[in-house]
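Could someone model 1-O-phosphono-alpha-D-glucopyranose with this protein?
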Amino acid sequence: MMTKVKKAIFPVAGLGTRFLPATKSIPKEIMTLVDRPLIQYTLDEARTSGIEEFIFVTSRGKGALEDYFDHSPILENHLREKGNPDLLSIVQETTLDSGTIAYVRQHYPKGLGHAIWCARHLIGDEPFAVILTDDVIISEEPVLGQMIAAYEHLGGAMVGLSRVSWDKVSNYGIVEPETSEGKVLRLKGMVEKPAREQAPSDLAIIGRYILTPRIFDVLAKTQPDTKGEIQITEAIASETSTSPGVFGFVFEGQRFDCGSKLGFLQAGISLALERPELKDNLQEFLKSLDLT
Ligand code: G1P
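Reply:
Sure, complex below.
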C-alpha cells in the first residue's frame, strides 16, 4: 500500500515585488480575493484533498500570515457576545488545529527548490505535496485531490500540467511527455522557463506537485542556476530516468496566475461572480462599463 499524502509544503517566502508598494507591509499571500486572503484558496484545496499537515516556508515580514491561521480570542469573543454565529464560524474555520501547522524560514532567496529543501526535517519519510499559492484553480474536484488519487496508483513523482500558449512557455517549467494522449502522462524530461524554440511542448507545470523525500537528496546536490536559484524543475527532471518515474497530471479547471496583476484581478472578478450576494450587481456593473 502506498503511504497516504498527508503533508503539504506551501513555499511563501517570496517578496511579492510585483505587487509593490502593497507588499511593503502586507505579505502577498494575505492580499484578498473578494474577502479571503489568497492563501485561503490553496489551503482549502489542500484540506479538501485530504492534507492534514501544513508546512509554510516563510521569510522575514510574513508575521501576518502566522497570525491569520492563529486562534483570535478577542475577535471571537466579540462576535460571540454580539450574537453573530455566522461570522464566528467563518473566523473559526481559518484557525488550523494545534500541531497541524508549522513554519520554517528560508533565510536566503535561493529559489523554489531551496525553499522546499528547507522543510526536509518536517517531512520525514513520507510522500508530500507542494502547493504554490499564486496558482488559484477553480475546479469541481480539487486538482490536488485528483493528483493524489492518481499518485496512489502510480507512485513516483507527479506535477500538475496545463497547456499554455506558445508565447508563454518561457514563463513556466515545461515538460517533455512520452505521449501526449490522456490525462496522466509519463514524462521524459522537463526544463525551467525555456525559450520558445527550445520548449519540448506547450504543457506547463502549474503549482501542484507530489514528491517523495528522495527529492531532498537530489536538491542537496542541485546546482544553482545563473540567477543563483535552485530550481525544483531541475531536481524533478533528474528523477525522470528513475523508477517508477515522473508523471504529469493534465487537469481541467480554470487556473489564475495570481502572481501577476492581471491574473489576480481576473481571479477576484471570477470568484466574486460565484458569490450569490455579489453576482447580479457585479454583472450589471461590468456590463455598464464602456468596453468598446
Ligand atoms: C514556478 C516554477 C515553474 C512553474 C511555475 C508555476 O515558477 O519554477 O516551473 O511552471 O511556478 O506557477 P515561478 O512562477 O515561481 O517563477
